[in-house]
Here is the input.
Amino acid sequence: MLKLFAALFVLLALGLAAQRLFLSFAAQSPARYAGTEPAFDLRTHLGGAMISEGVIFGPTGAVTSRFVAEMNGNWEGTTGRLSESFRYASGMTQERAWTITVQEGGRFTATAPDIVGQAEGVVSGATARLTYRLRLPQAAGGHVLDVVDWMYLAPDGVILNRSQMRKFGVKVAELVATIRPAAERGQ
Here is the structure.
């Protein structure tokens, strides 16, 4: 009987691992979106003044934070700077400045002061995926989280952003946001 329970446990564990590896958000492949339209161009779609509005879900799935961010992207050739100024519903503010370098084959890299090392990205069709390690502020514990960040370009030019943050492989937060040109909000 013990062997039967052990075998069932192993099968359950393998099933959960397979789901995480092959059927999860993080397992999406950029190749899946190749050829989708409109084509995502970092220099065009992350350039100029933008507004982002979003929510952050905690590990239980409940909303833990809401924000509005003013963003501005400036490009010189293949290098861009994307400044983000977040204002959270709690009153907290946060600044981040990304330096993005477009490479060949749809690849790009990015750095920011709270990113550990270098973020790695790829553009494919109407999407862009970025993976990186994010160091939270000391006020939030200073933890380092593994992040998978997908941006999906909608036909009207709005970007839908979904990010999952994990610690030791366990999802601890998820962000869902829109990014649109600021002129659309009368900014």
